[in-house]
Amino acid sequence: MRAPTLQPLVDELAAAIAAGRFAAGARLPPQRVLARERGLAASTVTLAYQALARRGLVVGETGRGTFVRGASRPPEPALAEPSGAYVDLALNVPILPAQARLLADRLAPLVHSSAAFEQALRPVPVEGPAAARAAAARFFSQPGWRLDPAHVVFANTAKQAIAAVLSALLPRGGRLACDALTYPVLKAIAAARPDVELVPITMDDAGTSAAALLAAHAKRRLDGVYLQPVLHNPTGVSMSEARRREMARLLRRLDLWAIEDAVYAFLAPGVRRFAQLAPERVVVVESFSKRIAPGLSVGVIAAPHDLRAAIVAAVRTAAAGPGAFALEACTRWMTDGTAAQLARAKCRDAAHRQQILRRALAGLQVQSDPRAYHAWLALPAPWRADAFEAAAAAEGIAVVRAAAFAVREADAPRAVRVALASPTLDTLRSALEALATLARSGPAR
Three-class SS of residue 74? Predict the structure, then answer.
C-alpha cells in the first residue's frame, strides 16, 4: 500500500458523503468489491474505511458492512436554538426558566457574608460537615426508610459516587450485573477498570429480571448488581412492587450487594426506595445534578455501615470529594426548602413535556413514563439506530442511539433515546414533530 494511493481514496469517499452521494444510512461498497473495481489492494480500502470511521463519517457493523453515519451538518440547522447549536434531545439538563433567580436569592446570605463565604471556599472532608450530613439525611429519607446521618458520604458528582462504590464493592476480576441497556457512564467507569466485567441481564415490563440475575449468578458468581428501580435510563421503566420484593429476597439469598441509582427518582416522589426492602444489602446513590443543575452538583451516597469505611477511602483515593461551595449551597437549599420546591416544579415540567411527546409522536412505538424526562423510541423498519441518529443530526436535532446504552453494542435494538429536559417547550414540540416525520418517512428521505 502506498500512502498517495490511500489518501485520495479517503478524500474522494469523504467528499461523496459530504455531497450526499452516499446518504445517511447507506452502505458503502464491500471492501473487496471496491478494491477490485479500483485495482487496489484490499488492505488499502480497509485502511480508507478505518480513516472514515475515525472522522466519524461511517460506522462498521460486524458481518453487515460499513454504513454512512451522515453527511456534514448544514450550517443553518432547521431546528436550531438561537445560538445555532443543535436542539439537544441527547442530554437532560433540566434548568427551569426562573430557577437561577430563585437559587441566587436563597444564597444571598452566604455570598454577602465574607466569613460564611470564606468558609465555603475551604476544603471539606469526604464525610462533609455534620450539618450537611444531617440535612442530607432529612432530605433524602422517606416514610419507612430513614437515612442515618452517620451513613452519608459525599462525592463531587454522581459519576464519582458510583465509581467509588464500585471500587469499594468489587474485587479484582469482579463481576457486576446490570441491565443490558444501562446508564452509559456505568459503561465508561467499567471500561476504565479492565479488571471489572459488566454482566448484562434482561429487563421486562416489571423492571430488571430477577430470574436473569439468578441465572447469571449460577453461571458464574456475581459480586454485585447495579439497578435503576425508578425511571430507568434509558427506557423509563420503573420496577414493580412485586419485582422489588423478589429482587430483595434474591440479594439476601445470594449474599449480593446492590447499587440503587436514584438520581431520577425525585420525579416519582410517591415511589419508595428499593433500599427500604433490603437496607443491609443496598447502597443508594443520589445527586443534585438533575434536582438542581449540573454546574452545582453534589453526589450523595447512603452507605450501609459495613461498606462505609471502604467507600470513604475510595472517594479520598480518587480525590473525588465534594466542592465546599457546592456542598454548602446544596445544604442551604435542602434546609430552607428550595431543593424540594424545585423538585416539585420539575415534576410538573417533566409531566408537561411528556404530554408534548405523546402528541408529537402519536402512532409511533414510544416507551416512556408520564413522569420521566426521557423516552425510548423504537424505530420502524428499515431504520437503523445509527442512521436515524445521523439523519436527525442533519435536521439539527441530537438524539442518542441505543448502542450508547447497550453493554454489548451488537445487542443494541433499533431504537434511540429522546431526552426532553433541555430545550424550550416550543423548540421541543417542533423538534419532536420533526423526528416523527423523519421516523415515518424512512431512510430514503
Answer: coil
